[in-house]
Design a protein that fits this description.
Layout lengths: L1 H20 L2 E3 L6 E3 L8 E3 L5 E8 L2 E9 L10 H5 L1 H23 L8 H4 L1 H32 L7 H26 L15 H33 L2
Antiparallel strand pairs: 1-2, 3-4, 4-5
Helix pairs in contact: 3-5, 3-7, 5-6, 6-7
The structure holds zinc ion.
Zinc ion binds next to loops.
């Protein structure tokens, strides 16, 4: 079952990578997967990971990278804010997602459970904790985004890497999904401010709660992909 799931996600990821990156090849030095479209008009490309300058020749339809030289003056910031800051959202966000899922589960269970349910009575506390975790994780992701952009300007000299473009696009999507989830949660329109639960009698509240949980779940996929792509820029493959 888990093996099948892994095969399925690997297949989806491969298809997405093929669509997004187009033709790729490996850096002959650090083995990072590079996109052919990133080479400039002279077919030159600087590897974002190891900094070698590659001349990418096409031989019988295959991309053959030849190492020309090494980028000598590469800014090496002492304080790496981006990789530090990224751990706050990626560490807190999954708990916010779990909080919303548990609240939805409590809302479904509450009417069918007989007698007093001490755990479900604490739902308002869980709803508040979820909002705080959401605010912190999405708030810190703004710092992560800005520091990442700064690194792209300085360390990577604004070169048009497909990986970095993907990270910028996914960051914007994550901020939008996170902002939507915060707005829904804070308004109390999905999860009631007094009970912390969804009012199952109100179709609007049910729809908004489902939208919030879906936005959070999708945000989880986006933030995990962001972390994975960022990881390749640090460790190669
Ligand atoms: Zn390399």
């Amino acid at each position: 079952m888990i093996g099948d799931l892994r095969k399925l996600t690997a297949k989806i990821a491969e298809r997405f990578k093929g669509r997004y990156y187009g033709r790729t090849f490996r850096c002959p030095v650090c083995h990072l997967e590079l996109a052919l479209v990133d080479a400039n008009g002279n077919r030159l490309l600087v590897c974002p990971l190891c900094g070698v300058v590659l001349d990418v020749e096409e031989v019988y339809g295959h991309a053959v990278p030849v190492v020309l030289e090494v980028e000598a003056l590469r800014p090496q910031p002492k304080l790496r804010i981006h990789p530090l800051a990224t751990h706050v959202p990626i560490g807190l966000y999954p708990f916010a997602v779990m909080g919303a899922f548990v609240l939805l589960l409590f809302s479904i269970l509450a009417p069918v459970l007989p007698g007093p349910a001490p755990l479900i009575d604490r739902a308002p506390l869980l709803a508040d904790a979820t909002l705080i975790l959401l605010g912190l994780s999405v708030g810190f992701s703004v710092l992560t985004f800005v520091s990442g952009l700064r690194d792209w300007y300085r360390r990577y000299r604004r070169r048009p890497y497909a990986q970095i473009r993907l990270k910028i696009a996914l960051s914007v999507i994550f901020l939008a999904l996170g902002g939507l989830a915060i707005a829904l949660h804070a308004s109390g329109a999905a999860f009631s401010a007094t009970t912390g639960l969804v009012d199952l009698g109100s179709p609007v509240a049910v729809v908004l709660a489902v939208v919030e949980v879906l936005a959070l779940g999708l945000g989880m996929v986006v933030i995990a992909t962001l972390g994975h792509v960022g990881g390749t820029l640090v460790f190669g493959r």
